[in-house]
Design a protein that fits this description.
- The structure is a single chain.
- This protein is 25% helix and 24% strand.
- It is an alpha/beta fold.
- Among the domains are: 3-110 and 273-347, 3-Layer(bba) Sandwich (FAD/NAD(P)-binding domain), CATH 3.50.50; 149-270, FAD/NAD(P)-binding domain, CATH 3.50.50.
- The strands form eight sheets. It has a five-stranded parallel β-sheet with strand order 3-2-1-7-19, with helices on one face.
- Helix 1 runs parallel beside helix 8, helix 11 packs across helix 12 and helix 11 (481-490) packs across helix 13 (512-523).
- The chain is globular and about 70 Å long.
- The termini are far apart.
- It binds flavin-adenine dinucleotide.
- The site of flavin-adenine dinucleotide has 35 residues, from helix 1, strand 2, helix 2 and helix 8.
């Protein structure tokens, strides 16, 4: 008899699970029902900013193939929200009252954008358990965001930004994390008037050190983005149109300054959507707590993957109940969880048993996707350059800054091994450091050899080949240069062919340029 798997959430990670389960669905081992709150087919959320600024068209966001899945026997229930789970009876309840039974339940409910506490905006609640009287409102605040205020998380948000960008309107972005900066830079390039307001001294302060952030801020200013640091937003002001409808008109800061604009884009981070799990009494920390096999700490019949899942070992929970880590908010780890879970569910192995240890994820590297502004960073970069005497054990720091030319590098090493780095305006150095960081390699004793990689016409040999067989080219899908070469050898030497056969370039798309460069290299006989 086939096992009934119910998947809640049809985002990119849910779509990947469906793909992995198709063979088991086709041969009748799994009976799969997918419930998704959005009415659209799945789309690549990572590319929403590209769509919002007119760089990608709607078709370019499509992913997954619902028709193929339906032909295989998968049932889709779209435009429906799961509002409750009866774990004793193993049934999920939809907002219209329909109940769907399961043997195994997979939550892939993703994340929602944080709405900051500002007078004029309702703060979205993460756990709706406090309001069970309005189950169909589970996913919504009691009031929608005011007109002219969006948090770029779904297609509808992207449509608003797209309209503002194409009309050349003034956009205020609140928050200068990587998403806020990418959107601001792309919108400015597309002709919008853009300001970024952020409370820290420098942008991307969770990824870059302050000096690196200041060099980035200067580069953004040069390309027309107004950067407003130390901006403590307190409220919004609205104006009324001819029909008496209120629209965003400006963001008011603690010092009384009003940052006027036509559209406010909230870019203040995301929070896992855990409300269904919370109502079902599942253990939750920053996301639904699951072990290394994506299995809930509370119930072996329930799993969670992607942006809603907090993968951790139960033994790591502190005495105060706190659990370190949290959802990565990145698509790559979610896709790897989906692949592993598809294999587990397809194998038919019982989900009961001891907790599976959390898999070791490679250290993350953050690359800003922006035309002409190269920013890449990884690891912990806060170490103070002067806190350790030469030869001492502990983090040692190498710094190089040329702010007038928009270039900055910080290297943090422990016992000669790179544990954190920032490279702004230094593309070749940044690529080299990414590779050394990924490999956990020791840095050359003369650190300045790395800095000179970006010097014009030095003829310097690159210390390590960025296209060495084990070098990661696509971080979202974990595809190496070697795997791409193999795909090229087996098929057409085109980016489309590489995408289709290895999945490289199908996530954030930030590596497509590097894939093209690799293909160009391969085409040139040595
Ligand atoms: C603008 C933007 C840029 C990004 N850039 C990058 C990047 O460069 N690199 C990167 O790695 N990541 C990036 N991300 C993050 C990436 O998009 C997420 O990691 C990815 O979307 C997670 O996929 P998911 O399927 O887990 O969750 P989601 O994409 O959030 O999908 C979850 C789905 O579940 C549905 N759902 C939720 N609750 C219910 C319910 N109760 N009933 C039914 N359905 C429900 C939701 O409607 C949604 O469709 C970006 C995100 C955004 C918004």
């Amino acid at each position: 008899m086939s096992e009934r798997v119910v998947l809640v959430g049809y985002g990119p990670v849910g779509a990947r699970l469906i793909e992995g389960l198709l063979p088991a669905v086709r041969d009748g081992r799994i009976d799969l029902t997918v419930i998704g709150a959005e009415t659209h087919d799945v789309y690549n959320r990572v590319l929403l900013a590209e769509y919002a600024v007119g760089r990608a068209d709607r078709d370019g966001l499509d992913m997954g193939d619902r028709l193929v899945a339906e032909e295989a026997g998968v049932r889709f229930v779209l435009g429906m929200t799961v509002v409750g789970v009866d774990r004793d009876r193993r049934v999920v309840r939809l907002h219209d009252g329909i109940r769907i039974p399961y043997d195994r339940l997979v939550l892939a409910t993703g994340a929602r954008a944080n709405v900051p506490t500002l007078a004029g905006l309702e703060r979205a609640q993460r756990h709706r358990a406090a309001r069970p009287g309005v189950p169909d409102q589970l996913d919504h605040g009691s009031a929608p965001l005011p007109r002219g205020v969006v948090a770029l998380r779904d297609l509808a948000d992207a449509e608003h930004v797209r309209a503002a960008v194409s009309a050349g309107q003034r956009i205020v972005v609140l928050g200068a994390g990587v998403l806020g900066m990418e959107l601001a830079l792309a919108a400015a390039e597309a002709g919008a008037e853009v300001m970024v307001a952020y409370h820290s001294a420098a942008p991307m302060n969770r990824t870059l050190d302050e000096n690196g952030g200041r060099v980035l801020a200067a580069a953004a200013t040069t390309v027309g983005v107004e950067m407003m640091h130390h901006a403590r937003a307190e409220s919004i002001v609205q104006r009324y149109d001819d029909h008496g409808q209120a629209w965003f008109d400006g963001l008011v800061c603690a010092d009384g300054k009003v940052l006027a604009g036509d559209l406010l884009v909230l870019s203040c981070g995301v929070a896992a959507r855990t409300e269904v799990a919370s109502l079902a009494g599942l253990a939750i920390s920053s996301g639904v707590l699951v072990d290394g096999a994506s299995r809930s700490w509370t119930d072996p019949h329930v799993f969670a993957i992607g942006d809603c899942a907090h993968v951790a070992d139960p033994a790591d929970a502190g005495a105060d109940g706190r659990v370190p880590g949290g959802p990565s908010g990145l698509i790559g780890p979610g896709w790897r969880q989906a692949d592993r879970l598809a294999a587990l569910l397809s194998s038919g192995v019982s989900s009961a048993g001891a907790a599976v240890p959390a898999p070791v994820e490679r250290p993350g590297v953050v690359m800003l996707k922006a035309e002409g502004i190269d920013v890449v960073a990884g690891g912990a970069v806060d170490a103070d350059p002067f806190s350790h005497a030469p030869g001492c054990h502990g983090p040692q720091v190498t710094l190089w800054a040329d702010p007038a030319r928009g270039a900055y590098v910080k290297l943090v090493t422990v016992d000669g091994v790179l544990t954190g780095f920032v490279a702004v305006g230094m593309p070749r150095t940044g690529a080299e450091l990414t590779l050394l960081f990924e490999r956990g390699s020791e840095l050359p004793a003369d650190r300045s050899s790395l800095l000179r990689l970006d010097a014009p016409d030095t003829g310097m040999a690159v210390v390590a080949d960025p296209f060495a067989a084990d070098a990661t080219v696509c971080w979202c899908n974990g595809v190496s240069a070697g795997a791409i070469r193999e795909a090229v050898a087996a098929g057409e030497p085109t980016v489309a062919c590489v995408k289709a056969s290895t999945r490289a370039g199908t996530g954030c798309g930030g590596c497509v340029g590097r894939i093209s460069e690799l293909l160009a290299r391969e085409a040139v006989p040595a």
